[in-house]
Structure formats: C-alpha cells, structure tokens
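user: Please review this fold.
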Amino acid sequence: MKKLTLVLIACMLIWSLATQAQTQGRFDLNTMEITDANGVLYPSVIAQKLLATGKYGLRINKDGKTALLYELSIEEINIRMANAPKPKESTYFKTGSTISSFKESDMAGNKYNLKEMAGKVVVINFWFINCPPCRQEIPQLNEVVELYKENKDVVFIALALDDKYELEEFLKTTPFKYNVVHKGGYIAQKYGVNLYPTHVILDKQGKVLFHTSGFGSGTVAWIRKSIEAGLNNTVPN
C-alpha cells in the first residue's frame, strides 16, 4: 500500500507539472476569464483539458486577464505536431537498446510474446486507473490507435497495474483501444518503472525507439512520429 501511495504521489506530481506548463508561460489560466468566439465562458479546468487534446489554441489578450479559446484547423494541428518539443526521456529505458521480453495475455485473451514481435512496431503504455494523467491521455491515445487500426505491423499494449474486474468497470465508461493487460505491475517492476504513465516504443528490430514518462503537450505527437519512424526504419525527429 505504501509503495502504491508513493507511485500515486509521483504520478500526481508529473500531472501537476504538465498542467502548469499549460498556463502559457507567465500567465495563470486558473485566474483568467476564458471564452470562445460565441462568448461562452469556460472554467479553467475545462479549458486546460481542451488545450491538452492538442486540438485547441488560446489567444491571451493584452490585459493578461482574459483569453479566447479557439479550435485549431487540421493544418494548424499538423504544424503543431510537427514542431512539438521532444519529451524528456524516461530513466527506465535506453534508446537503441533492446529490452527483456515478457509473455502476457490481454483482457480479451490475446497472447503477446515480445520475442515473437520482430518485424512489428510495439507501442507500450504503463498506467493505472487512479493516475490522472494516464486517464487524461487516453482519448488522444485512442486516436493514434485508430490511425493504425488497419496496419498489422503496429501493436499497442497497455500494461495496467489494476485487477481485471476494476478495469472492466473502468473501461465501460472510458474505452481504451490499446490491448489492455491487467495486473501488469510485475512487468513494470521488471523494467523498474515507477512513474506513470510511461511510454516505450520498440522498432521492428525490437530496439527502443522512443520512451518517456508523464503526459506533456508533445507526448502523443512524438508517439505518432516514432511509430512512423519505426515503420519506415528511420529515426523520429
């Protein structure tokens, strides 16, 4: 219990820092009046969640007290994704190295053996239900899965710390399109992972192509970049 509490505290800290990064530098969204073009007022919590999706922008007025929330065009989203800063690497993996294998089954009974995934890009997410940033990024991760749902060379695996019955209840209201593995804590311990969410992407040779901990504005963009790089045998940049 003490260990899980420490993990939750660390998770909350990362989420807090990521949220603070969305206060647009020296401006604090929590004290700002945020409206859209129709004059609809948005609570700061809602505005920050919308900004975190990468589909909205914020124009802060000169007074520093009011701001306009607006939806980005597809072109603007693509430009932002292309220019998204690379997230800080995690301390659990090393780019260009291989990782030890694991064998597991997801909640649907599908079996996975990392040793047998040569030739595929493997996208792994370490998470748990009571991790706020883990939950926050799920909608965007689902969009990434949708992009590659017809590509058999990309495999998405979500290693959850939670029991199966807890996940079944959670997924009823919050669908997660990764292949969810329950009680994956022992795999996280195997790699030394204790900050959540943590992402690692393996290329077709099974080498680490990308890895990071926490959820920041560039995380999902770099997951997409890394998948594309893995499929094309290049390096994400």
